[in-house]
Design a protein that fits this description.
By secondary structure, the protein is of the alpha+beta class. The chain is built from 19 helices and 12 strands. The protein has a 5-stranded mixed sheet with strand order 1-2-8-5-3. The longest helix is centred in the middle third of the chain and has 31 residues. It is globular and about 65 Å long. The termini are far apart.
């Protein structure tokens, strides 16, 4: 186990023999708000920190856990939950459209309420349900390809990564395909609610997006009340206001996450032509390629949990109310779990440990099966149509706080 806390024991300010609280330890800190913390520097920084310790300070709000075992523990434990509105409250946001939208959201619920609402939509996101949408995925990919096929270059974020998952989640839910551009614009904005820098600097824009999106969701529900259809929105009408929260959560959550993961995947393959050629030669590798990019570059690097009671782990107490950020970006490259973890290899044997990109425990990502299917179809499709893929300029990275995406990805083939 790396980061042995024995070195910190002598620094504990508590009485001899007492189990120290995490705040009593002299721990290094990660400057998560550093605007240069992205790309390779992001992973180099996390690797160096993980080699020093398994737990670090996330000043001023909480603590990071870094190795795979610790990350999995805090994701899964029922003594903690996703903090939901607490993350906003810490930053002084206690009312308004963004705060109200998170009320009743699956991310903000726990226990029986969370189980009950999740069961309402779970059947629509099983592996079999996701597989049933694969023909639609291929159809959307064909349409998007037609607009760039003759150019030999594009900004991948605008040409594919944004429209593709927005078109799919609209189809899955029963929203008009013509609304896809608005869906990805809203989703990209609203998901910035978990980025403390954007909360501090762009709150009015986030509030406006949340208000517009909730009104849009209510409009969809009213349309289905007047004209029911065979779609998920109609199925959720009996849930009333809870149905509004579910539709809103799925429409947002099903867009920017897949968008960001696909964009990073293409960025990674553009710098690894040997891996791209292997995928082009054998499209059956798409499933393994998807798992590898999910492991290598998780687009939710920091997953928050708040302690519901005092939690003792590795002879350290995390008191009730403590915020812990489980760092999947570090855990997914833990050498204790994977050989050569800093190499992207779509043919490597990685079954011994699963990536923690979709989380774990009660809040495991509802749309994981759909996202995997969308990524698999996109990678298999594009690898056979974009030979000699390479970057056509520098990618423009978003912050790894919240959903870690790309603003632009110029490529050519």
């Amino acid at each position: 186990m790396n980061g042995n806390l024995d070195q910190f024991g002598v620094l504990c300010r508590r009485l001899p023999g007492a189990v120290p609280a995490v705040a009593d330890l002299d721990l290094p800190a990660l400057d998560y708000a550093d605007p240069t913390l992205h790309g390779e520097r992001f992973h180099d920084t996390l690797r160096e920190l993980r080699e020093r310790t398994w737990v670090a300070r996330a000043e001023p709000v909480g603590w990071f856990v870094l190795d795979r075992e610790a990350v999995a523990h805090f994701m899964r434990t029922r003594s903690a939950t996703f903090p939901g509105r607490k993350l906003l409250e810490i930053q002084g946001v206690t009312s308004g459209p963004l705060y109200e939208r998170l009320k009743g959201n699956l991310l903000d619920l726990q226990g029986e309420d969370h189980k009950r609402l999740r069961k309402l939509v779970q059947p629509s996101f099983t592996p079999a349900a996701a597989d049933a949408w694969r023909p639609a995925m291929r159809g959307h990919l064909e349409d998007l390809w037609e607009s760039v096929a003759g150019d030999g270059r594009c900004n991948f974020v605008e040409a594919f990564a944004k429209p593709y998952p927005a078109l799919m989640i609209a189809e899955v839910m029963g929203a008009p395909a013509s609304d896809a551009p608005r869906l990805h614009a809203w989703a990209n904005r609203i998901q910035q609610q978990f980025d403390p820098v954007k909360i501090a600097t762009e709150l009015p824009e986030l509030e406006r997006a949340a208000a517009e999106f909730v009104e849009y969701t209510r409009g969809l529900m009213r349309e289905r009340e007047a004209e029911p259809r065979d779609d998920l929105i109609t199925q959720l009408l009996p849930a009333g206001e809870e149905g509004v929260h579910l539709v809103s959560a799925i429409l947002v959550g099903g867009v920017d996450t897949t968008q960001s993961q696909l964009a990073h995947g293409i960025r990674l393959f553009a710098g690894r032509p040997d891996q791209w050629r292997k995928l082009a030669a054998d499209p059956d590798l798409a499933a393994a390629a998807t798992e590898e990019i999910l492991r290598f570059e998780p687009i939710t690097p920091f997953t928050a949990r708040i302690m519901l009671e005092d939690v003792e782990y590795r002879d350290v107490v995390f008191p009730e109310g403590t915020l812990v950020f489980a760092v999947a970006a570090s855990a997914n490259r833990d050498p204790e779990s994977w050989e050569a973890p800093d190499e992207l290899d779509i043919e490597a044997e990685r079954d011994r440990a699963k990536p923690l990109t979709f989380g774990a425990g009660p809040h495991f990502c509802l749309g994981a099966n759909l996202a995997r299917a969308e990524l698999q179809e996109a990678l298999a499709f594009l690898a056979q149509r974009m030979p000699d893929l390479e970057l056509d300029g520098d990618p423009i990275f978003d912050s790894p706080l919240g959903v870690y995406g790309l603003h632009a990805l110029p490529i050519r083939w």
